[in-house]
Description:
The strands form four sheets. Strands 3, 7, 8, 9, 10, 13, 14, 15 and 16 form a nine-stranded mixed sheet that branches. Strands 1-6-5-4 form a four-stranded mixed sheet, with helices on one face. Strand 9 and strand 10 form a beta hairpin. By secondary structure, the protein is of the alpha/beta class. It has helices spanning 69-74, 115-131, 148-153, 165-176, 231-251, 319-343, 355-359, 361-364, 383-396, and strands at 12-13, 55-57, 59-64, 82-85, 90-94, 100-104, 107-109, 135-142, 183-192, 195-198, 210-211, 218-219, 226-227, 260-270, 296-305, 368-376, 400-402. The chain is globular, with a radius of gyration of 21 Å. Belongs to the TRAFAC class myosin-kinesin ATPase superfamily. Kinesin family. Ungrouped subfamily.
Amino acid sequence: MAQRNGAQRGAVKVDRPFSSSALRPSSSFKSRPPPPSNVRRSCPSSLGAADASVSGRVRVAVRLRPRNTEELAADADFADCVELQPELKRLKLRKNNWDSDTYEFDEVLTEFASQKRVYEVVAKPVVESVLDGYNGTVMAYGQTGTGKTFTLGRLGDEDTSARGIMVRAMEDILANISPQTDSILVSYLQLYMEAIQDLLNPANDNISIVEDPKTGDVSLPGATVVEIHEQHSFMELLRLGEAHRVAANTKLNTESSRSHAILMVHIKRSMSGRESDFSSENDTPHLSSTFNPPILRKGKLVIVDLAGSERIHKSGSEGHMLEEAKSINLSLSALGKCINALAENSAHVPVRDSKLTRLLRDSFGGTARTSLIVTIGPSPRHRAETASTILFGQRAMKVENMLKIKE
Ligand code: ADP
Ligand code: MG
């Protein structure tokens, strides 16, 4: 195995060997060089090079938020709690002035990374898969205030370079479908205290989840579904959803950081007589014969802005706050448990433990492609939260999803 230059002082934690990307080498999460031979592997990986062609593990990027004005002033004398080495895809978490732990991710996005770059490395490969008929999920995990909503949900009305992943994903989808034969259906939901609320119709505040026992597909029959034909109406939908989210949270006397926001985009494509727009590899059937009956290809993109991960530790609170902390604890730790079970190839993945994991069931299972972005802040005061976020991301890097086209 090749020794890479710049071997790090202190512990280097790399949990798994890197293998080539499952689907398309053109994506940003593509094949990576082998790790240096001095790295410590704390867990063996099940994903070897041989099965890389049929499987894709969860891709994990870490993004550092720039210091805000308060941090610039208050922490001026202190170094950031992390040091990023994007070219090595490494992050060093400082333990003290002279020692740090080093972690590797699929992408390491510094405080200078543009929204465009973040979209391209985190979400674009997932959107491409969804257009090809897979289920795809993009999740943001991290402490409140570290940039989850900035990364996913920014509209960029005044400054288009600020547009987040939701807006950019829809632009890409609209640019790549055929309006005559394809359809885009969108729902926007919030999960709070184990109740699913419709952000497009506040009267719908307890939507149930239905799972198809045969296919494992998840549906939400009570949720509002809006057909999208153009970017303008999607932006209106996001604005409406956000307004309802604020109103619902005001009514419940809570903040958005305590609920999970979930955008679902269903794409139905009739593939008759044309090839998949993104298909450059042998990963999809050849569809050019005019004698073939139309093939309906259904993809689902789910974008999840998770509740602030710090709530996990806030169980010291009382009354309603305690119930809320428990509920967030339940859903985020259920997500963590599913990620661990999948990472360890466990026969039992406890998807039924929370509504969040039930909703994401088909993101974990047979047909999914998933990207996780973990967001962190630079402040040394939040070092413990940052460490816990980094560890969550590291575990997720071991999760493997088998890929199948749903037709
Ligand atoms: P979260 O959703 O994780 O609670 P936000 O997305 O609301 O965090 O971000 C908190 C604050 O930090 C916001 O004012 C946001 O504009 C700012 N911010 C977050 N990420 C960045 C970034 N990469 N660049 C500049 N500002 C950012
Ligand atoms: Mg937020």
